[in-house]
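In the lab's daily routine, each protein ends up as an entry in a very long ledger. A line of letters takes care of the sequence, but it says nothing directly about the fold. The fold becomes a row of whole numbers, each drawn from a learned catalogue of backbone shapes. The protein below has been through that process, and both of its lines are reproduced in full:
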Amino acid sequence: RGVAWAALVAIAGGLAIVVLAGPMAVSLGLLAVAALIGRLVALSLRAGAGGTMSLGARRATAVILGVLGVLLGQAGTWLYARSEGGVLAPLDYLGQAFGWLVPAQLALAAAVAWWSAR
């Protein structure tokens, strides 16, 4: 149950990244969204799984789902840009459009998820 809740939160976070990075053209605010994804994924995992998961398993699951949520958002952002017209390959586009923000989002989501899963 906890993993399912956390996965739903990660998907919702990925959709939030798409909306903010695509039509709204937000860039730096995506760091806050990534941190929020990590936090909410971990909290929903803790609430749903409770004491049924060990701390290590809970942290690993939270980090994986948080990172997957951000990656889903990046893929969706690329698909949105692609629908707007000619765009580069996914990694080239994300590197050109967002640069260091993409790896920073991944690292921030992972760190916050790890910390919050305690």
